[in-house]
Design brief:
Layout: E1 18-26, E2 32-36, E3 41-48, E4 50-55, E5 58-63, E6 66-70, E7 76-79, E8 87-94, E9 107-109, H1 112-128, H2 151-170, H3 173-176, H4 191-204, H5 212-219, H6 223-233, H7 238-256, H8 261-267, H9 273-284, H10 288-292, H11 295-303
Antiparallel strand pairs: 1-8, 2-7, 3-6, 3-8, 4-5, 4-7, 6-9
Helix pairs in contact: 1-2, 4-6, 7-9
Length: about 300
């Protein structure tokens, strides 16, 4: 007897309908772009260095691994800081899915999965279009006569997958209350995922001076929820945990013996060597020099 099968049509929550440009720019440290606006989406991701971005009435500074989204008709401009030559990925596209409301005014720190999708987009773009990726004045992608099978589809799917990954990772249950029509069980991060995301974010910003407010903003999580989670999962507050990560990195750098103690303090964003030394002793019960000459440093180095 033949069984009867019923098919289902798979839901597509986010669809890229058009691609306008894909660029990879290696700008000089004095680069200035006066700005533009257009009626489609644009994302900018810093692959290296630092860039100052104007988005309507906001001015923000982005570092390596950070991404900003410009919604349709939002004015945006760029300015390098005169010290660091930035490398930027810029992709403009059309997407009319309701979930794109989430990306308005967002600045995201991308994770390894999203960075992989970004790499896929750039790799396939170079195979598919002969338009130079570093020319900001090109307004239309031109195809090679013969391209690899499915290359344009990989670009589309990689961009969709990257956006879906960001949405799933960053769209907290707290934010869902503001967008009830977007509520979906798959979009609710559990506590372990939230803690893992924040820990990854802290490691990416290990050289920075972070505040609780900045951590909450960048990870789309409320202050009380964040502190409660870290006390439950890590046994301490978020800033104390961040300090622990910094000292753990300092220990690693001391064992590598490539930097002076003052250089390590500077690399990890401490305001002075004296404060770094006090923090180091608080967490290890030793000064940096005492740690360097101790047996425990050799033991920890051997473990690695």
């Amino acid at each position: 007897m033949m069984k009867k099968y019923d098919s289902i049509t798979l839901k597509e929550e986010l669809i890229i309908t058009e691609i306008y440009s894909i660029h990879y720019f290696e700008y000089s440290k004095d680069f200035v772009y006066e700005g533009e606006s257009h009626d489609f989406w644009e994302l900018l991701c810093v692959d290296n260095g630092v860039i100052e971005v104007t988005a309507d009435d906001r001015i923000v500074t982005l570092k390596k691994g950070e991404m900003i989204f410009h919604k349709p008709n939002e004015f945006h401009a760029l300015r390098a800081n005169g010290k660091t030559a930035p490398n930027l990925v810029v992709i403009s596209f059309d997407c009319h899915a309701p979930c794109m409301r989430f990306f308005e005014n967002q600045i995201i720190s991308i994770d390894t999965t999203e960075n992989f999708y970004m790499g896929q987009i750039l790799t396939e773009t170079k195979k598919t279009f002969y338009t130079p990726l570093n020319n900001p004045y090109i307004c239309k992608l031109e195809r090679y006569p013969n391209t690899a099978f499915g290359s344009e589809q990989i670009i589309k799917l990689s961009l969709e997958s990257m956006l879906i990954s960001i949405f799933r990772r960053c769209f907290s249950s707290e934010a869902l209350l503001n967008y009830p029509e977007l509520d979906h069980p798959m979009l609710r991060r559990n506590n372990d995922e939230l803690v893992s995301q924040v820990v990854q974010y802290l490691n990416l910003h290990i050289e920075d001076h972070l505040t609780v407010a900045q951590i909450c903003k960048d990870n789309m999580i409320g202050r009380s929820q964040l502190q409660k989670l870290f006390h439950q999962k890590k046994g301490c507050g978020i800033i104390e945990y961040f300090s622990y990560l910094k000292i753990d990195m300092a220990k690693k750098l001391i064992r590598e013996n490539r930097y002076t103690y003052s250089q390590i303090a500077s690399l990890l964003g401490y305001s002075s060597y004296q404060y770094f030394s006090l923090q180091f002793k608080k967490y290890t019960r030793m000064t940096p020099s005492e740690y360097n000459s101790s047996a425990i440093s050799f033991f920890e180095n051997d473990k690695n």
